[in-house]
Amino acid sequence: MKNPVHFLREIPLFRRLDDQELFDIVRICQRHSFPVGAYICKEGEIGTSMFILEDGEVKITKMLVTKKVVTLATLGRGAVIGEMSLIDPAPRSATAMTLEETVIYEITREDFTHLKANGLTAPFKVLKEIATTLCQRLRDTEQKLDGLVKKAENIFLDEDNDEQQRQQALDMGKELKIMLEKNRGEAGGEGER
User: Fold this and answer.
1) What's the domain count of the chain?
2) Distances in Å between the alpha carbon of 82 and those of 30, 90, 157, 168?
3) 24, part of any domain
4) pLDDT at 5 over 70
């Protein structure tokens, strides 16, 4: 087992922490081992912890409205799962299941909040990194939505498509555009971001 401070130093989420701050985070980490096929967290349950994969492999899945389960990613050493749980006690958006024997570090929201309440700097630096990551994800999502809107518009404009296909594309484009505008705060949202 590698020294937890050295391990966390490799994780981008903790890259701006000095040795003392890393030690403060390590103090609240709980190390767990999971067998193959175990659930680390399940979609829909309220998130109370984030997880850092020390060893092993985890599959991230999501159930679609059609009840079909799709794999979003396969993650390995150094991956962070559920970091939003440190900020927002909302239902988890995906399931994490082990594909092999896996070792993780868990940080609970309660312990993380306790560090913040004690005025330690580590949790605030971690929150800043989470915010930076979320901003990048938001920008990436906006680009994807823009691309889907353009694709829907192209389907609508393609004269070879029948009226029903064109109407579906138009409806999809409108929905995507509304989502994108809400995401940007332009459609009755919370203002500029």
Assistant:
1) 2
2) 15, 11, 41, 35
3) yes
4) yes
Q: Are both 13 and 73 inside the same structural domain? A: yes
Q: 16, 9, 24: which is closest to 133 by C-alpha?
A: 16
pLDDT, tens digit, 9 for 90 and up, residues 124-138: 999 999 888 888 878
Q: Which of 75, 12, 73, 79 is nearest to 50 (CA)?
A: 79
pLDDT digits (tens, 9 = 90+) for 95-111: 999 999 999 999 999 99
In single-letter form, the type of residue at position 144 comes to K
| Domain harbouring 124, CATH code | 2.60.120.10
Can you give the residue range of the structural domain that contains 145?
136-185
Q: What values do phi and psi take at 68, rounded to 5?
A: -80, 135
